[in-house]
Amino acid sequence: MLLLVGVGAVTALVVPPLLEPGAASLISDSPKEVIDQTWQIVFRDYLDINGKYTPEKWRALRRQVLAKSYGSPKESYEAIRGMLASLDDPYTRFLDPREFKEMQIDTSGELSGVGIQLSLDKDSKELVVVSPIEGSPASRAGVLPKDVITAIDGKSTRGMTTEDAVKLIRGQAGTKVTIQLRRAGKTIDTPLVRERIELHAVDSQVNTTADGTRIGYIRLKQFNATAAKDMAAAVKNLEGQGVQGYVLDLRSNPGGLLMASVAIARQWLDEGVIVSTKTRDGIQDIKRANGHALTKRPLVILVNEGSASASEILSGALQDNHRAVLVGEKTFGKGLVQSVRGLSDGSGMTVTIAKYLTPSGRDIHKHGIDPDVRAKLSLQDAQKLRLEDLGTSKDGQYRVAESTLVKQLKSANAVTRNTTYSPTSANLPAAVGAASKTP
Question: What is the b/e burial string over 51-89, where b = at least 16 CB atoms within 10 angstroms of the residue's CB?
């Protein structure tokens, strides 16, 4: 199964270990078994992106690492990381069992926890609640945005990263965790019971312009296992509210699952190629639209330098098929496909196995995708912009996207008016169109 790992993204799909039991038993030492599994995955499937890989070098490296003794899994993991480092490919990497489990959680669209979105305040370095997830234990307990988390189960959060805090807050459903909050100078101890929580990849709203145009704004945060379902629900909801066009925000979306990007592209595109992937053997897998678009209304996509991987597949597909206008800044430029493999001891790895091309055949790796309309967000403006300001009049790039969409709508309306049937003209195409409408 394939995925795309974007910049800073933690994404995964589990696949069975590559080796059959009989083959694995040839290496009797358990740490060496995992080393050999990793080696074989690269040997069979790796797409060399830097010219650092040859079968001969890789065979010699196998002899070296397997000739050594490893007293613990930790030692063998270091050997694997060193082996993969020789490829000079940041996307081909080893994940110990804990890291691999976290990757699975982050892309499953579900987790077991209390439903708090966290961030680290850039000035105070304190852990701050961005927002509780609606309907979660944290939401029901009255946790509010901007609450400062000062302790977790009695352990001070001073100096903690968001990753450190997440490890302490997540846990098995039904277990308890107590977080200490600071709000308006008061300290509040909040006991919570962890639950299975569904992570929604999409936020949406209706924005109304000064002239009354109703715009559906959709922000897609990542391409996880629920992203396509969440996108479909958002589009159907906005269609029901009578929007006239859409702004799809992919800014700082680092990517995720390949098939999620394909499924979402099919929701916007009725026909045409979406993406093709090419392995080291030159085999191309072409994904196409399937005639099931949810809307044909005009679409503008917001992108920036943090839009990577699956975000680039989606924006490239819709740009090349003339389905959307891209607004913002050049995208990151990550045109590689990774496969995620589970290993026999619960660890795993991501391995680069293919590159992808946009419908027009563009290889965007390290080049990125240029927007149709450039709209830069200054560092000063970016620092002022809060999460809740995205997709509002306070968001300079969104304002450009909105005005671009309004121009599209006006242009489309002008074309419609110009092709309206006039009985005094010989406008046959318009006459046929008018005659075919059902009152």
Answer: eebeeeebeeebeebeeeebeebeebbebbeebbeebeb
Active-site residue numbers? 309, 320, 334
DSSP state of 4: B
Question: Which residues does the chain have with pLDDT short of 70?
Answer: 1-29, 415-439
CATH of 2-106, one of 3.10.129.10, 3.40.50.2300, 3.30.750.44, 3.40.50.80: 3.30.750.44
d(CA 48, CA 193): 47
pLDDT in tens, 235-255: 999 999 999 999 999 998 888
Topology of the domain covering 202-336+352-414: 2-enoyl-CoA Hydratase; Chain A, domain 1 (3.90.226)
Instruction: State whether residue 262 is helix, strand or coil.
Output: helix
Give per-residue pLDDT as tens, 195-216.
988 778 999 999 999 999 999 9
CA atoms within 13 A on the CB side of 178: 10
The conformational region for residue 397 under phi > 0 = left, psi -120 to 50 = alpha, else beta, is alpha
Report H helices in 254-351.
258-268, 310-320
The values of phi and psi at residue 269, to 5°, are: -125, 125
As annotated, the residues of the chain forming the CATH 2.30.42.10 domain(s) are 111-198
DSSP code string of 138-172: HHHTT--TT-EEEEETTEE-TT--HHHHHHHH---
User: Which CATH superfamily hosts domain 111-198?
Assistant: PDZ domain (2.30.42.10)
> Which pLDDT does position 423 carry in this prediction?
38
Question: What pTM does this model have?
Answer: 0.76
